[in-house]
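Lab notebook page, bench 4
Experiment: in silico fold of construct C2
Operator: M.H.
Input chain length: 410 residues
Purpose: comparison with the prior construct
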Amino acid sequence: MAEKQKTSFPKNKIKILLLENIHESAVLSLKKEEFEIECLKGALTEEELKDKIKGVHALGIRSKTRVTKRVLENADRLLCIGCFCIGTDQVDLEAAQIKGIPVFNSPFSNSRSVAELIVCQIITLARRLGDKNIEMHKGTWDKSSKSCHEIRGKTLGIVGYGHIGTQLSVLSESLGMKVIFYDTEPIMPLGNSRPVSTLEELLKTADFVTLHVPKTEQTNNMIGEKEIQLMKKGSYLLNASRGSVVQLEHVVKALRSGHLYGCYIDVFPEEPEENTNSWFHELSTCPNTTMTPHIGGSTEEAQFAIGKEVGDKIIKYINSGSTLQATNFPSIELPYGGQNTHRLLNIHKNVPGVLKNINSLLGEVNVQGQILSTRGGIGYLICDVEREASKDLKKQIASLPSSLKTRILY
């Protein structure tokens, strides 16, 4: 197996740039591989990153750094990008794909953290704990039970029954809540939860509505004035998904009119690029409203898991070419071909005739293993060939008009 670790490019010359205080679990994993690591605590602006990205082989970011097309145009050696968070909205995925750069993320590692936070906020809203806490800090002692309720027997409506939604479903049922959910895909209910056929039905039925959907064209401004008016008078709205999902100006009106009895918001349409003491939103003037600064997945446990998962995906891509679970790339992996082989990686345009052209070249050599898959505008080939032929074969495949990026891995 010693031969497997010999790459065509020395590991200690592979530069990894980690921004936004990536968790130590990722740093330790990458250091074990003897890569050259540079860690920065904060995010970089587009102009800063355009300069910094030169010579970097792998980039690790969280949610604040924007990897735009202009940044990628300056990425002369970039092999892959790791988003140490759930989403990849901050990366121009199409531009990265065209340049042959797979993007990895961790879509599920913080599911439990978000689900627990939502349970906490449901109870907080039902008992008006946010307002009570503010009153106590101001010196007001008000032991009234008015408008304070148990959550047992109440109906929770979950919009988006994925990894977070299903965990939340189980937790909420254990507290005695009735659970309904709406999802665009048919999903098997857990416990006694039940699906509803439309979003409108969920909004009209639920006492608490919580949103756990991705950022898409369909979810953009999904909850506006019409949807809020469909909700029961005296109900509550919670959003820890994406800031683009809810039109907050209509939430403010509903809270002030008393149509909504409370809300919890963790994500906003516009969020500061860095910590600040001057942030303000009109929601802060509304009754029974709790807000947090996009911390749904911000627990030590979740950040450790995210760091380990995304760090391992970067390592596997650099070491073996594996793109399993890449968000913008064909998801493939090829087992190790043996000590007498070299591994070729080829990223190419997804056009007719590519496989025929590549196989006509491979037909002249001994091939130990091969896998090819396409996604969108690109195709990705992993191939283990006899060592003696690898250098010439790389040149021949790279010279094909369809080829975007070709390299010998080991």
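Observations: The longest strand covers residues 341-349. Confidence is low (pLDDT under 50) at residues 1-5.
Next step: discuss at group meeting.
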